[in-house]
Amino acid sequence: MNGAIIGLIGTVVGALSGVLGTLAATRLGGAEQRRTQNDQSERMGRTTAYASLVTESSRAYRVGYASHTGVLGRIAPLDRAQALRDFKSAAEAVYEAVSIAKLHGPDAIAHAADNLASALSGWCREVELLAEGQGDEQQASEAIELFEELEERFVTLGRLTLSGAPMLR
User: Which pTM value belongs to this model?
Assistant: First the structure.
């Protein structure tokens, strides 16, 4: 082989390795970019789901507290049936938000969301019993406290999850 052919082969090999290197770098960079975009999208979905649950549970707390105190007659007279319907409606919105938050996980958040929904359901039932004259004011008050505690736990776990901090069991 003469020197011109060897030079031509060297040029072709160099060009191929340059093209292959560029393609590999582009592919790896694109995969990293997609992964980053997916992570950002997942984080945004979680943020929206968690915020929705916190917003709805805060609203349910306000409506539930008004219903609870109205049933006990401590504020201006309310239509008890309407107050209970309002409380149940607010609770339903929380249950829907819980379902969405559970889809976004992780498991600790799903468990905290379930516990929050369960506490709200218990409180709602206690208020119904009070309205029917069969309830116990102490149990209803304990139901409020449990709801408040579990709402705070959800908020704390949500913050930890969104900050990327490791979840404690």
Answer: 0.74
